[in-house]
Each structure stands twice: as structure tokens, then as C-alpha cells.
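ok so I'm stuck.
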Amino acid sequence: MLSAIRDIGRLVIKKTMKIERTIEGKILVINVNSYNNSYHYAGIHIEDFDSGRIEQYLYKEGESKGNNPAPFCPLTEPKKTFKKNSNWLKQCREVKTDDFSLNVSEILNILIDKENQIITELLQKIQTIANNINKFFTIKINEKFLGEYEVFRKCFLQLKEKKLKKSANIGVCSICGETEKEVSGKVDVFKFYTIDKPGFIAGGFKEIDAWKNYPVCRNCKSDLEWGRKFLENNLNFKFYGLNYLLIPRLLVGG
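replied:
not stuck anymore, here's the structure
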């Protein structure tokens, strides 16, 4: 099953197959602008979600649940969502980059200083949007989304790699069967098990050994992600109230 999804992902990456997805909703955008060599809070505006700009949003579906830090996330409770975004920016302060056009620490300080005002304005803006419409939250700096800046793109990728390294080692990938420099057991494209409960972890119940359960190399992880996106947007159906994915076995490999 997983190898079939991997093959589909490879074809998507090669542009042989296309992901046609449309996410609808409204984005509540905090605006921060710079002038006179300093940053200033410039209010909140609402705009439509544009599926063609997902990379600029730094939005990754399914990764912004709970209290995990995120640069772009569904808007639930304004205060919690604001904290989630602020915590992500805090981690970006440590990112090394050649782009010195932004002062992340100063931007973060402005947001924290204006937190109460921002929360109040978010609550007011939410009232203008119907309850059945998806709502998202993010920040724009000088009219640009975070993904349009090198420092935030780097942060997004580095934090993703850091998550994988919590359970990584040299081994054989369970998908492609090849010996890789590094495989990880913390690949959550499909959640077959959890590593926060000792009974699910191999090798002495230690998180560092969880990679032995489901070792996957970086390339296959990327292929699986693209393959799952294609399935969810093109081969997803319901039967008796349950969601199913139709997984074809390709005659021609990816």
C-alpha cells in the first residue's frame, strides 16, 4: 500500500499527475510594516484563501493541530492561535541566514506588545465572518507573507528536520528497501502508531529507538506526502459515514 502511494507521489513531483485542490476560507492577516527603520503594527485585514499561494503561506495541512507552533494555522481561539504563531516566530530568531532585511526579534516584540489589541481586533473581525466558513490566521510583513522571506522558509524547513531527527538512525528504509544515511521513525504522513506511549516503541521503550518501528528515508517521506495529497484530493470518498482513500497500484513505476 505505502509503496503504491510513494509511486503516485513520485509522479506528482514529476508533474505527470496533478493535485487539483481547492481550500476555501478567509484569512485574518496581522499586518506589520516598517518605516523610519522600525516596525509598526498596522492592523488586521481579511482576505480569501488562495490555494495557489500555499507555499507563500507556509501552510502545511494537518500539522497545525493542538498547541504546536505554526506560521499559518486554522483560527480557533484567537488567544491560543496568536500564541501558536508567536511561539513559531520565537524559534525563527535562531535561524542563520544571509538575508538581513528583517529583524525577527523586533517584529516579535511588536506583536507581543500589541497582543491585547490584536486579540480584541481578531474577535471583532471573526464576528463579520459566517460560522460555517473556514478561518485561518497568519502575518504579513510589508505586504508579504512569511513564505516570501528566506529566514522564515529556512525556519520552516529546519524545524521540520529537527522533528524528524528526534527518532533517526542509519538503517534500511521500509518503503524503498535501500540503505540510507538516515531513516526516521517519526514520519507522520500516516499515523500507524504513537511514540509518546512506551508500549508502542521498540528497542527498550526509548523514543530514540522508535525509528526501528517504521524507518523511512527522506525521499520516500516526501513522496508519501505528495501521494497522500493526490489521493485526498482526487480519490477520496465516503461510504456509510466513513472516509476512504482509493489507492491504485500503478502498472508503470514512479
